Amino acid sequence: MRLLFLLLLLLLSLIHTASGYRRNDIYLECGRMGGACKHQKTHGCSILPAECKSRHKHCCRV
């Protein structure tokens, strides 16, 4: 029973780690698209469809 619990815990931690790496790829995508994460109140920039780490920022074409 203990072994089953440890295997389940290991599986959950691996899933969490793998999903974290995918999430970081999305953040790096903004730089690859030629943009930068800017505060939402910046005006005069075209918003790109990539995400930023902070929810108060968006990907803006530089």
From TrEMBL:
One of its GO terms (cellular component) is extracellular space. GO terms for biological process: cell chemotaxis; defense response to bacterium. One of its GO terms (molecular function) is CCR6 chemokine receptor binding. The keyword Secreted applies. Residues 1-20 form the signal peptide. Keywords: Secreted, Signal. It is found in: Secreted. PANTHER family: BETA-DEFENSIN, BETA-DEFENSIN 33. This is Beta-defensin 33-like. It comes from Octodon degus (Degu).
